[in-house]
Amino acid sequence: MKLQYLPADTAAEEIQSHLDKHGALIVEDVIDQPTVDQLKSEIDPFIKNTPAGKDDFTGFNTQRMGALVSRSPTCRSLITNDLILGAANKYLAPFTRKILLNLAAVIKINPDSEAQVLHRDRLAWGKYLPPSIEPQFNTIWALTDFTQENGATCCVPGSHKWDWSQKAEAKEIAYSEMTVGSVFIYNGSVLHGGGANRSSASRIGVNLAYCLGWLRQEENQYLCCPPDIAKNFDVTLQNLLGYTQGEYALGYYSDPYSKDKVVILEPEKALL
After folding, report:
1. Model's pTM, two decimal places?
2. In total, how many domains does the chain have?
3. Domain that holds residue 205
4. In angstroms, how far is the first alpha carbon of the chain from the final one?
């Protein structure tokens, strides 16, 4: 089984079409090497102090570091990348008026790491969402080359349409092999998992995921990126973090410190 590879000038509608059909794809050469180098220089000090996982799912030899919006200016440009954000909005538009940044994390799969169990990311919300609603648009940005040997993410194209009891056969598994600067895109319903690293070098990717605007985010962006930090960002990023109302009565607040007239406020007011 092979994944589809698309150029960086692909239209959002084509990405949507491929995701609908296959559940996953790769867009090549979205960012250049200087951008990758700058991003790595921003996150390396944090990764060095990040412990490995504590179970089979997170990986005993895999490091996962979040709060990237606060920690990495370059990561912010990836989150709001015109191609990727446009495609995310287009893909999730049938189910929501606005989308949110679900999580932003570095995943570093080190040598001798075992393969992660195949899973669906939508299970973050249990099985409460009906299959007809697709909750996620997920991306993994390659900061190193991704190969089958070094732990490229495994994926089962088409499995987003399967009954959840169906198991994948080895011949149905594809590997997100791609060059530095390329992006693996997949929805929340397709089976996938981190690959085993049998090489002598680490495989590093940035996992940026978007979700429906009425769902709780996996990574608590209000704690990872509180108002005193978020107030310095552009409005697009602020909205993705959740500093906006998803619907008419979704996300409002009242200032708990105000001793004046108590009123209901839009979340944007917290950033002033």
Report:
1. 0.96
2. 1
3. 5-271
4. 51
